[in-house]
Amino acid sequence: MSLWQRIKYFLALKTGGSSGNKKSGAPNDGENELDREIAAVYSVLVELLGPEKLIIQAGKMDALKYIRSGRRGERVLALVRILEENPTIDKIPTDKEIPAILVELSECIAAKQARRSVEDEIERKLNEKLEKEHEEYVKDMRLAILKEEKPELESPHDKKKREQLEKLDGIRLTQSVMELLRPKSLAEIVGQERAVKSLLAKLSSPYPQHLLLYGPPGVGKTTAARLVLEAAKQKELSPFAKDAPFVETDGTTLRWDPRDMTNPLLGSVHDPIYQGAQKNLADSGVPEPKPGLVTDAHGGVLFIDEIGEMDEMLQNKLLKVLEDKRAFFESAYYDPTDPRTPPYIKKLFEEGAPADFVLIGATTRDARHINPALRSRCAEIYFEPLIPAHLEEIVVNASKKLGVVLEDGVKELIAEYTIEGRKAINILADAYSLALTVREGQTPVCVTKDDVLEVAQVSRLSQFVTKKATDEALVGRIFGLGVAGFVGSVIEIEAVAFPAREKGAGKVRFNDTAGSMAKDSVFNAASALRQTIGEDLGDYDIHINVIGGGNIDGPSAGTAILAAITSAVTGRRIKQNIAVTGEISAGGLVRPVGGVTEKAYGARQAGITTLVIPKENEKDIPAGHLGLDIHPVATAAEAFDVIFA
Hints:
Number of helices: 23
Strand order of the largest sheet: 15-16-14-13-18-21-22
């Protein structure tokens, strides 16, 4: 049924039939028919828009006064303004024009009704979809809440794996012996009083410094760093909070990736495509920055053991963080205008991660393995090698913690097999375990020298230091001093001299393994010999030997070589409780050398009582250091006064 047919049908219902109660052909039938058609259009419009909306629309179109008008033309004008939504239409149609206008209005109403039907259908489908999504959302929320309140059910396989893990967690052997015997206070760190004092002073200041700790392994560098932070927290002027972190890592495990895809020290960025950022970030194409250890250490200490093993480029990057006190991130995937980027990621990219900490680096390498720019920003502290007395004290302290009794001579014997405190403790722990097995049930357990010797044999240990000094005096034999890896050692040098078969045709033989610089020292000694005692080395066949075939890396054995040659040529005897270090010049001057402190420890371990050093090294070592009688000399003649018996 068309809209016009509906209007006719509606009109018929209103009037009781097509002809009504009036006779057909009455004079006013046309006029009444026209009024009924206009009323029918209004009725359909009310049905389409609703009474309230129709009144509102009429008010907007300034048509209310025409709707109630007694003139049919004005009522039709109101319909035109409402349907065409144009309040400026002011032409009032005549009775002849009204039928055609009503037809047009009927078509307009039909179009609006069709559009409304489509809109109603779309609205219905939209409401159905929204309702469905709402139900799914509510369902997901309920599941999430249930997961939070009640763990997800396990499969039998998962349950078995979990029970196995819980069973393993319940197994405990014991704590590590190294953990048990590790010093718990600064007072327990033996032989490093000066280093610990300096370390504590630099870390307890209101302006703590970055530090580099040098020294041989096993002398307490790491332990001292841990304990010093705890001590510094108690100081009134210390900037460290009570909960300041101590983050520890190892330079040998830190590897620099030139693409910056992985960097546990400084932090890295996980790209959303290749590196597996969080799912919600990867789905949005947002990179994920992950702060590193420098941020974990913020407000505390970052300790890098074996910092000398770090890649030089990584050291440079660490230097930049030390200067900025922040670690910055970069990524080609980061878009600062992307509204999907979480605020914390935007903050990390634009401001960087905080990294205000004190760096403490420890190394067993020498300073040349550390970036010079990094060194210039750090205070440097050298930990000293341990002498037998220190090792004996460490062994005694460890035996008290283990609750064992030491047979006479055990601590001295252990000290002969190592120069490291950690190794001394390991030897004691091994001997303790052996004693428990051999003398089961004995209380308290007694560790004997035989236990230590058996451990040394099984572990293929050799005595690190043997006492070389004696009270006698010998011709052509002297103790020089060397240093390697912060550890000093005694070098035995011997020389023999025979008159040459032809005057001025003498030969000098020197073992090649001693090194080229040691050979240069021999030539310098030849000139100094003639300068000091007037003898020409060309008149003798000289054989100089470094016992053990050791390499002398540097000219520091020059004075000792000159003394050995002089003794061999003149027959003067050399004291065997003296060690000598110093470069010799062609004119017989004793020049300064490095590593004097470490060389003093090497001399002390070998039982040396007197040390001859260059005059210019006098300030490098305190008088009476380690109980040694130290003689600074400027010339070979001064050295001879001390060396020869």
